[in-house]
Amino acid sequence: MNTPTALELVGVSKSYGPLTALNNVSLSIKPAQFIGLLGQNGAGKTTLFQLLTGLFNSDEGQISVCGHDISQDPIGALSTLGVVFQQATLDLDLTVHGNLKFHCLLHGLSRKLAEERINSELDRFDMQAVRDKQVRSLSGGNRRKIELIRALLHQPKVLLMDEATVGLDPESRKSLVNHVVSLCKEREIAVLWSTHIVEEVQAADRVIVLDKGKILAESSPEELQAQGIEPRLSLADAFSQLINNNKEIGVAYE
Amino acid sequence: MNTSHAFNAFTALSARETGKFLRQKGRLFSALVRPALWLLVFAAGFQNVFGVAVIPPYESYIEYNVYITPGLLCMVMLFNGMQSSLTMVYDREVGVMRLLLTAPLPRWYILFCKLMAGTLLSLLQVYAFLVICWLFDVDIPLMGVLTALPAFILSALMLGSLGLLLSVSVKQLENFAGMMNFVIFPMFFISPALYPLWKLEESGAEIVYQVAQYNPFTYAVELVRFALYGQLSLTALAVVLGSFIFFFVLAVIGYDPQKGVITRRKG
Question: Dihedral, CA atoms, A131, A136, A141, A142, nearest 10 degrees?
Answer without folding.
Answer: 0
